[in-house]
Prior knowledge:
Elements: E1 2-6, H1 12-21, E2 25-29, H2 33-43, E3 46-47, H3 51-55, E4 60-63, H4 68-78, E5 87-90, H5 96-108, E6 112-115, E7 118-119, H6 121-127, E8 130-135, H7 138-148, E9 152-159, H8 163-191, H9 196-203, H10 211-222, H11 231-248, H12 253-267, H13 278-282
Parallel strand pairs: 1-2, 1-4, 2-3, 4-5, 5-6, 8-9
Antiparallel strand pairs: 7-8
Helix pairs in contact: 8-10, 8-11, 8-12, 11-12
Amino acid sequence: MKVxxxxxxxxxxxxxxxxxxxxxxxxxxxxxxxxxxRWVAQxxxxxxxxxxxxxxxxxxxxxxxxxDDDVRGVxxxxxxxxAEGGIIVDxxxxxxxxxxxxxxxARDAGRWFVDAPVSGGEAxxxxxxxxxxxxxxxxAFARAEPVMQTYAxxxxxxxxxxxxxxxxxxxxxxxxxxxxxxAEAVHFTKRAGLDPALVLQAISKGSAQSWQMENRWPTMVExxxxxxxxxxxxxxxxxxxxxxxxxxxxxxxxxALIDExxxxxxxxxxxxxxxxxxxxxxxxx
Length: 285
């Protein structure tokens, strides 16, 4: 199929690569054209000078950009240029509100919009093992699902427009709570004089086990955070969560507190550290 991919960041670059490897006809756009040119040199396809040129005639337009305003800007340029009846699949983590807005704009233009945020981080994108939670029209999702499966291990339609983004918010609430618990556990382990490696061995196969424990405990112990999902990104996501909660009445006291903890990490210079850097604020002298 003719697929355009807009946004070749940490996630988008390998995701677009999986589309090319699956023999789709891929065109790419990135605000930094050098990255788009590098992608083409590695994977083939073509890069466009403008978004409209990149998506011209494409059946699918896949987005992985920064925030609500980025999505609005890309969709405004893409809708008139892409193929009639085509589908925009948005993997950006945004508000549910903007997902509903874009779905309506797409319908008005004779196109479709599927909000499809992902979980799994850079490793999931590189390995084609992302989890996708999608919202949108059932028929549009059915058409888009095989495309998303080129870089995902699980793709689930949650309901109508916006429900994918709401589900991603649930995901981020869970991650924030787990990482804060791990930070306190690592901190306690050190203060108690225990061997962190032995503690991990003892508890990681029981009910405390989690992906975060298996993958982040050793690096948290060592104070290494120069990788992974950045604190700035998590704060953006938790801001979306807390805004939504203020509208739907959900009481998220712990999430709000952890968001404040991440603000402390930012103040320590950790804006681009991995989210597991919550432990760093506990280890300060």
